[in-house]
Amino acid sequence: MEQGRLTVIGGGLAGCEAAWQAAERGVAVDLYEMKPHRFSPAHESAALGELVCSNSLRSNAGDSAAGLLKEEMRRLGSLVMRAADATAVPAGTALAVDRAQFAAHLTAAIEGHPAITVHRQEVTRIPESTAGPVILAAGPLLSGPLAEHLQTLTGQGNLAFYDAIAPIVDADSLDLEIIYRKSRWDDEHPGDYLNCPMDREQYQRFIELLGSAQTVPLHAFEDPKYFEGCLPVEVMCERGPDTLRFGPMKPIGLMHPRTGVIPHAVVQLRAEDREGTCYNLVGFQTKLTYPEQQRVFRTIPGLEQAVFLRLGSIHRNTFVCAPQVLEPTLQMKGVPGLYLAGQLSGVEGYIESTAMGLLAGINAARRILGQATPAPPPETAHGALIRHLTESDTAHFQPSNVNFGLFPPLIGKKIGKKERGRIRAEQALVYLGQWRQQLADS
Length: 442
Fold this sequence. Notes:
Layout: E1 6-9, H1 13-24, E2 29-32, E3 56-59, H2 65-75, H3 79-86, E4 88-89, E5 94-97, H4 99-112, E6 116-119, E7 134-136, H5 144-154, E8 159-165, E9 168-170, E10 180-181, E11 193-198, H6 200-212, H7 233-238, E12 265-271, E13 278-281, H8 290-297, E14 308-310, E15 313-319, H9 322-325, E16 331-332, E17 335-340, H10 350-368, H11 381-391, H12 417-441
Parallel strand pairs: 1-2, 1-7, 2-6, 7-17
Antiparallel strand pairs: 3-5, 4-5, 8-15, 9-13, 9-14, 10-11, 11-12, 12-13, 16-17
């Protein structure tokens, strides 16, 4: 690992984005990925940038925090956003991708970049950053010697929560006499989502079965700290009989186009690929055993004969206590030249993880080039995430998706929710432009 070269550990979304950003700035990059020689419990493809949970990158609306973050990334030359836009599948106002095409796009771009050398080997110890900056983007399943080395460097134990994966069903096995196509509040178009409607009796039977179904037991060393934005359906069910009806199964805006009836509850399905050959159960992350998933989920109207192409599972996500460990540049305090990126840095979600890879790549490259590394303004989505990572209360820190609650408060008269989103987005893009100019001038 030569002086002046950047080492990136991990070929997921954050690692690929970090490597790309540095390489595009003329920095030579060594990217280390352990697949296909070793796979984590959640991975099965040798491709870079493999998506292991949902195929959705969430909202693409410009007045939402997630949509704003995507637009900022596009303006910063994000490779992941380029791949996502090129491989998008219908998903209403959300940005969802064809998994295989998305990963293939990223792999081809990274392996084809003249400044990036991909090493298919496992790294078990973080290299000394004196040989050049290092970005650790090894993912939320970090374990073994590498995790132990990181724990030694942080001076504290890693924190962990559990993220569950939703099932995928074969489109040909769906009963389209029962299931109807409609997006929430979309009255003019058929919509991008398939909907499985339930009446009161069907819903009551479903939650009774769900509440009594067998789950996969946790290991003795596991402490179930679930991320609130990705709770297993059975955990939501435990919180009350109507919790699911006000969560992923809410029927609002989903009136049946033929009968005009608003169901008591709805299970939505979203396309997994462009051809619509398979669908995932939206918001149905689960830790039920495989036999129980098939038994319970086949009671959903329209899924009686469902063929499950992938069943749900649960895996550990590992992250550091960012306010105690990280500088605004994403460098570790006390370890100059070592950057953390992705979910390991303390964010939650595909796009947030990628954004931290983007910033780590920019900052590490600028360090090599002898340039200043000012943090993005907190009024931007990127800056708001950095603010969350570095200024949150250490004692109560938890990973977060991007949301407008992380931004500085708007000054002025009371503004409606929808208008607030638009105003924040407009302001953020102005601040982003100023920050990009600052980078160019320094």
